[in-house]
Amino acid sequence: MKQLTILFIAFLALSMSSCSKDDDTKGSTTKSYTTTDFVGIWTSNQYSIDVFVKLQNDGTGEIVDPNGDTNDITWEVGTFDVEETDANGNTNTVAYNGVIATDTDGFEYYYIVSSLSTDVDQITDVYNHIVYSKGTIIDQEEEEEEGSSIETPSAPTDFTVANIGKESVSLIFNYTGTCTGVKIYSAEKTTDLEPIVNLTEVVEGENTVEIESLTPDTEYSFYVYAYNSDDTEVVYSEETVSVTVTTNSAIANLPIERFGFHDQYGGALTIGVLVNASDLVEDQSMWIESGDVTFELYTSESKDDGYALADSNPFLLPDWNNSQIVDMNAFANEWNYVAGQVYYLKVQAKDRNGNVIGESYVQEVEYPQSNDIIPEKPTGVVLTKNGTCVDITWTVADKAVSYEVYVSTTSGMDYKTKVGDTTETSMSDCDRGTNVKMYYQVVAVSSTGNKMYSDPVSIWL
Asked: Where is the signal peptide (predicted)?
């Protein structure tokens, strides 16, 4: 609201007798000004002002207007526009018309709303012998602040993740109703944040969008908003819908299915890993010929270092649709294995450029291994966050008399730490930190000391 000042211009006295044009002089009219407050209601920054003088009598005499006419008339001086402020930011004159009262002699009183009294003097002095001046604002009604004319869309629902890859994920959501589109952000939406996806074709029901160019083994949070828009405005759904996902590691896990010692060709330590081609290469079109992947077996006397290449198979082409076990051997006559000593084996898969795309955890094997009793591989490993602890549970492994549990910060269980031993099928591990990803592995131990390792399982703390 703008606070304005009213200047009342009263026509206090005028002779009602018949007179000539010579009698109509500036001195024949008396003016007085009175101020009060008036609250103006405006709808725009520009107003059209009509300025005119009005000649009127009570019917007993005549008044002569500046043009020499003697009739009761309204003489319009002109129409012009007034901006709310001038170039220097000062408030300009804004006029409002209205009849205040009619005196006993039939003369009307008018007022001019103005921020500067000098503006009124400038107008009225021009026709001082008539006094009447009046202005008109285009629209005196209050323009209520209008809300957006665009409908707020409903928020997407059932936001889930599918087809998690190394550098991409598929996001699935349901939508009810209609909207201009859906935008997906990497954080809660702000004015400056650009969406990573703008989906402009949204159907009622299930929608799927692919997020690409992600970093392997990285946690992402995605925030999805529906929106409606026109040429000037965008309105988003009010509810924030989000989901968190971790992309697959750039190096796929090669689960160990079997290991041990065999006495063929002078004896060897052997290991078998389970291979799924789709875990190694996400794009099936790239999996077309032998040599796309090479499997290599490494052996060492130390768990942490000193690994040397013991076997290589560049000719195996795993089937895309079916998993298979790849067996590899480290022969004793090449590595001078000593009976009763423990050695460490691991398998890597490399692409044609020599990049590691798959790796097993380190398996310890005794040479020659006692094959009397080999336990079953632990399965059904479940990790549950419990305050600052992780509860680890698993199913019973056949021929196991005890279990060992290990923890590591890598999926290959490098530099793993032993959590403990137990004859039960559960264990808790506490105080490993926050905002970190930990990997746990359960080892089944038989009565003859043979061991089988579970696949590593991860959890975010």
From this structure: 1-22
Sole residue written with tokens 């008044």:
63
The domains found in the chain, sorted by start residue, are 2-126 (no CATH), 157-246 (2.60.40.10), 252-367 (2.60.40.10), 382-460 (2.60.40.10)
Q: Residue 180 — left, alpha, or beta (φ > 0 → left; ψ -120 to 50 → alpha)?
A: alpha
Dihedral sign from CA coordinates of 263, 332, 406, 404: positive
pTM of the model: 0.45
First to last CA, the chain: 56
| d(C-alpha 37, C-alpha 34), whole Å | 10
Q: Side chain identity at 319, as an amino acid letter? A: D
Per DSSP bridges, beta strands 252-253 and 356-359 are parallel
pLDDT tens track for 65-88: 444 444 443 433 333 344 445 555
For residue 94, give every residue at least 6 positions away whose Cβ sits within 8 Å of its Cβ, in sequence order, or none: 4, 40, 42, 47, 49, 82, 84, 113, 114, 115, 135, 137
Amino acid identity of residue 346, one-letter, is K
Q: Which of 368, 68, 21, 435 is nearest to 219 (CA)?
A: 435
> pLDDT, tens digit, for every residue of 208-245?
999 999 998 899 999 999 999 988 889 999 998 999 99
